[in-house]
Records
---
Amino acid sequence: MKGARPGTAARPPWRRAARAGAASGLLAVSLSLALQLLGLPGLLQAVGGGLVVLVPGPVFGTLIDALQERGRPLLVLGTALLLVVVAGAAAVLISRFRAPRWQVALLGAAGIWLLTLPLVVAAEGGLGTSATWATLVEWLVALLPPNLPQLARGRRAGSPRRDLLGAPLSRRSFLELVGGSLGVASLGYLGVRAIAAAPPAPASGSTLGRLPAPVTPAGDFYVVSKDLFGPPRISGSSWRLSVAGTRALSLSLAEISAMPQVEQFQTLECISNPVGGTLISNGSWRGVPLARLLELTGVPAGTDQLVFHCADGYTESLELAQGVHPGTLLALRLDGRPLPAEHGYPARILAPGLYGMKNPKWLTGIRFTKGSYAGYWEQQGWNPAALPRTFSRFDFPAANGQLSGGRRYLLSGVAYAGLRGISQVEVSVDGGRTWRRASLQPPLSPYCWTVWSLLWTPAPGLYQLTVRATDGSSRPQTTRATGSYPEGATGLQQLQVEVG
């Protein structure tokens, strides 16, 4: 058949189109990944982040509980594969039109881009970002190359591109080679990220005879964000915070840093932290009391909620009473240094006694509203009150660990119940039949977790260790196991330990 290589059967037209379209899609994936690594929003972030918002809350909560730290990289990888499939399918459809295919491809890219814009809004918080136009460029890259007219029909003999074996390459074959190579490398990179992702280890480093560290080093502090490729890049010299009170303010980082500041110890826990999980850390923070800032700008009459806007499109709110709480800070420093980028540089809100979702990072604006306000995660059904469930965990020993009989060990860990505090921690080594009361270290502040410990000298055997806490209002930690959605996980952590 004309056009077929000797000794091979020609592929059906739709297969040739699908292959070229998929290669073009892989090229677009590579472009999007390159933009993200340069700190620019791209199609993977916009589509992936938008899909997160559109997924029903119960489904999303189940996926978070099941996938944990692998959730975000798997979402990016899935979004990349979806882009390749869409590009391949679009190429097949375009190949069936009688009109010039490059014109159809242009219209198709524009149409898909328009369908993508709601995802951009969901992921970025609006259309006024570079992601709006970056996604258009990437859809053009995904759909247009296989359908461009041949611009080099008049090439001289010997001028065609050639593969590694010296055989001539058509434009389509060249696209498949380049796009496929770059795309496969990009997908491989995303796959490695998914495989390597793991929940943070307990930062306390508890070992035999050693209590967990009461303060988590900044480098070990847990990180959770809606952003699939890390924090937004913000210049502290050009950043400004807008506060829309009765006297509107626009403050620079230098102006805020010059205000009187306080330092406090405070625990943050993610609402998706599983039973016994590590998405909880305790930090030494420094910042300006938010109440002081509200005094300067004035609070409009009738205000019920403070609404926060962030550089990555995230929004959140606090009740006015929570905003003026003496422990609520406009935080500027963690562990004695400016906030790390992943923790909200240059400024974030720090609200004691609430899950981490109520402590927005990369703050850019504060405004006031009457009535309730649904922030980013509340729009998916997560509980807007965000009051932490009573939590306790083992830092030592580890699950499925092996200990030596007759040796004395210090069982230890942390417990947390928000502003309710912890009044008691108990440990069982026989699956909950009997309980022993653990020793408690005084918390560093009313906003912190409590470190607990218990000496144990086991005989050889197999043990089922369980820990439970009682909060400051004498309410014991619930034994009923639930997932994190929509109010935070409940249940008791249990470990199986073999003593030899």
---
Amino acid sequence: MAANLFALISPPHIVRLTVLLLAAGLASAADRPQWGQWHSRNMVSAEIGLPQSWDPASGRGVKWSVPLGGSYATPVIAGGKVLIGCNNDQPRDPRHQGDRGVLLCLNENDGRLCWQLVVPKLQGDIYLDWPRAGICSPATVEGRRVYVVSNRAEVLCLDINGMSDGNDGPYRDEGRHFVLPGETPLEPAALDADILWILDLWSEVGIYPHDSAHSSILIHGDYLYLNTGNGVDNTHQKIRAPEAPSLIVVDKHTGRLAARDGERIGPRIFHSTWSSPALGEVAGDPRIFFCGGDGVVYSFGALAAASAAGAIETLRRIWRFDCDPSAPKEDVHRYLRNRRESPSNVKSMPVFVDGRLYVTVGGDIWWGKNEAWLKCIDATGAGEITESGLVWSYPLEEHCCATPAVHQGLVFVGDYGKIFHCVDARTGRACWTHELDGQVWSSALVADGKVYVGTRRGGFWVFAAAREKQLLAEIEMGDPMHGSPVAANGVLYVPTLSRLDAM
């Protein structure tokens, strides 16, 4: 049944990717208010006492389970709330009917709905906002503010309490935002989101989105760093916005565009801009690490202070590393559907650990070559470091969407070829591999001495986080998994296509 449901609603080109961790305000030390360990994007948690096995069918070991309708997102836990994107296949408010993007805010203790952001679909071309994909981007929480990119390619700042404490400004036109242009605005109700500000990437930044917005927002200081999702059009052979940025910086207080990259990545984007940025410190300086849709990793200096009102800065590039230097660099779309030769791209996020960057890269799943790698880069260099910066390169079975998890000298990652890998972080040599029941799109979580990973066939696997392979459990979730498991406050959260389980 799960496989049939997935076949009905799975978009052929959507990768759930989808944030740095800067816990503050309402977020306790055990919360997971953003993706990854601190600023690094590393999916490693200090939580203990997490389950080794459970049974979704009988409910054994399941604290609560909430139906999602359809979801490709990863949950985020902060301030007593659980936030996760989904679609509107199961309407929770009779006023919001039909295909919509939804961000649910649930009570952490019991999964009860606190409020929801409901966003109408972009109209016309389905490749702009794929049907029934919902909101794919994970939220980022800092204090009472929730930052998320909607299915309409809008950066939204929300009140974590929704409308329960009133309609806070400066934005007060939520009722119009909840409906399509030309429709009668709705009166905001208790279960609706409270929008504080909006930045429309389409109209204000000049991007051309593809499939669905997919961005995990990174916070550093007063700024939000995010990929724009700029990509090809519905022919998959043309970049409609070649001059649009791939990485932007937004003032978190106002939503004003503060900076952008100046790399002119657009013409070299083979499919879309999938990867979100990571943050690390090199020689005492904060660095932003970003993987472009051209298969190149870039390091930028972080913005230090607010610029003059209205001025949009260009990010200062420190180095660039081409993950696939022998791949085609010009007229890239003529390699469409070529499974032997094509450009590479990056769908996961780079992970920064101890001065090194770990990246999965390779041919596009739908349109490119099958070849893929896990690469380790020395992040301390400058200039063109394609040759000098490579520490090691490890071949993967076939394609890869997953962000690697680095823990105690080991790198854990699953790939599209149904193989889960444990790799020595120092040498790049395999410690062990294991064949899974299906393709891996989600990222593995390392926590409590265990490694958790799910597949698109509905299998969930628990290994010991160790150099020697030890399979601890194999659990049938009965539903495909695209979002990644997370742990917070002693609870493991596992998102599937149709539900979110808390154990």
---
Amino acid sequence: MNAMRPEKTETTETETVDTNLAAATEVEAGIRDFVRNDIAYLRRPAAGTTADAPPLDPSAEATVTNVNSLIQRVAGTSLAEIENLISELESLRDLLHAEGQRVQREISGYAQLSQAAMKSTRMIADNVSQWKRAADGLRNS
């Protein structure tokens, strides 16, 4: 049963991400449609094209300001999420680097221990063979 829980969590997280992505896409599409259809006439001419262009009326100026602030809020949220993700990835990189160094130290310790065990085993084997020869020599004499 424990094996099923991570799958449910993973599925739930995937569904949440998909839902958030769909909502963000829908908001972006709505903003695009609004800008294209509803306030396209409010776009200011490029600098130097017509110096005699009439200024925008106050309600149009307010609409442009509202749209700009909406876009900045949406972009700000996305940028904050990206910055959080970058910091989390940097933390994960640091953790993986530290764990890699720890594993290397552990492997080095095991290698030294293995070499010491091999030396001890050789010494014991040499001593046993010497004792055996000595015992064989005493039996034959």
